[in-house]
Q: What sequence folds into this?
């Protein structure tokens, strides 16, 4: 109770945040009163995305110019713009469709890797590590062994195989929740088992079909054209709204479970949606060019280190994935010319050491954390003894 003659204290209302208030490093777009929609833009991520887009454009120009015969950039521009050119066959028929497939495949792998790593909260959880691409490959190679070699059918089988493998991994890893380490370890187990199934199909199939399947399993853009690029491009365009949803959903999934649940987020459904989207993207890319290893592992982690954001930047991951595949295919064509290596051989040569580095780095981080914990416990016990 208040003393006589005194007034009851009234709590002052909390001050409203000033207009234009934003976290450090972000810019607010559409923050004026006339705009109904506003969103935060990470400045460094935007600058990195612009630079990556410029680098990708340079890689694409080099891809179209460099080959068995060099084509001048002016002739490349004429072909792209539809002007008459003597290089129409080389650029428009041979190089441009193959590059388009590489761009789409790389972008799909980059986004797929970012989504799956976000859900698993583990940089090792890429589609080619946890068995997704192996599932797509097993069903595709099995179909090729039994005579199904049409590239209009194989991409659908790849998607079905990837979804089936991811579903099994998800079910076996679920124990009242999705634990990151269990998810990755079970995925690795499925990947090893599915590789054995693929080898079984290769040994049982026809020799020529087995050779064709073996080249496809390394991940190659050789012989790819508009017949593969067009369906993949339309499919990615149809999935664009889902990717935009995933950009927003990433923020809630990155929180700890208690905070996200307190905010009313249905973590189980959100995680399942992100994983399903990542699996579909990875499976479609696998169906178009085969399992190009380590692109989905490299692109998201490099993009995150460049942008220094809390979440994996999906747009930068897509740009990096496209640049890795197109640039890798260019090097694979020229390093051992006139022999053309599959692009998957080159990405595996780069990605395998990076994977080893990630494992060693993770082990050292855990060791340092455990050491700090033991030191803190020792100081605590010593303080208790002195008391």
A:
């Amino acid at each position: 109770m208040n003393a006589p003659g005194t007034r009851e204290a009234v709590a002052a209302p909390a001050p409203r945040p000033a207009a234009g208030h934003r976290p450090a490093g972000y810019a607010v777009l559409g923050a004026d009163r006339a705009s109904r929609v506003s969103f935060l833009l990470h400045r460094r991520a935007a600058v990195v995305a612009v630079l990556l887009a410029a680098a990708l454009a340079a890689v694409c120009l080099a891809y179209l110019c460099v080959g068995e015969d060099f084509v001048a950039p002016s002739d490349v521009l004429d072909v792209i713009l539809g002007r008459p050119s003597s290089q129409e066959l080389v650029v428009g028929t041979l190089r441009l469709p193959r590059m388009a497939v590489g761009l789409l495949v790389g972008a799909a792998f980059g986004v797929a890797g970012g989504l799956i790593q976000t859900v698993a909260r583990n940089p090792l959880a890429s589609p080619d590590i946890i068995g997704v691409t192996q599932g797509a490959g097993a069903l595709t190679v099995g179909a090729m062994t039994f005579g199904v070699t049409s590239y209009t059918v194989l991409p659908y089988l790849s998607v079905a195989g990837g979804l089936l493998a991811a579903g099994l991994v998800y079910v076996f890893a679920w124990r009242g929740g999705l634990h990151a380490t269990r998810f990755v370890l079970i995925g690795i187990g499925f990947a090893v088992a599915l590789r054995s199934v693929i080898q079984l199909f290769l040994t049982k199939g026809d020799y020529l079909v087995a050779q064709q399947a073996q080249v496809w399993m390394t991940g190659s853009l050789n012989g790819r054209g508009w017949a593969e690029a067009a369906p993949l491009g339309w499919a990615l365009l149809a999935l664009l709204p889902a990717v935009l949803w995933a950009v927003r959903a990433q923020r809630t999934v990155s929180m700890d479970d208690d905070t996200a649940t307190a905010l009313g987020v249905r973590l189980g459904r959100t995680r399942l949606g992100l994983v399903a989207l990542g699996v579909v993207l990875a499976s479609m890319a696998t169906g178009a060019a085969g399992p190009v290893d380590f692109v989905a592992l490299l692109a998201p982690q490099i993009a995150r280190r460049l942008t220094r954001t809390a979440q994996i930047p999906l747009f930068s991951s897509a740009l990096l994935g496209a640049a890795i595949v197109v640039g890798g295919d260019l090097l694979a064509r020229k390093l051992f010319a006139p022999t053309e290596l599959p692009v998957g051989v080159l990405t595996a040569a780069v990605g395998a050491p990076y994977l080893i580095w990630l494992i060693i780095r993770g082990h050292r981080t855990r060791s340092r954390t455990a050491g700090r914990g033991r030191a803190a416990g020792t100081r605590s016990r010593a303080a208790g003894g002195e008391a």
Observations:
- The radius of gyration is 25 Å.
- The chain has one domain: 39-353.
- The chain has a mean pLDDT of 80.
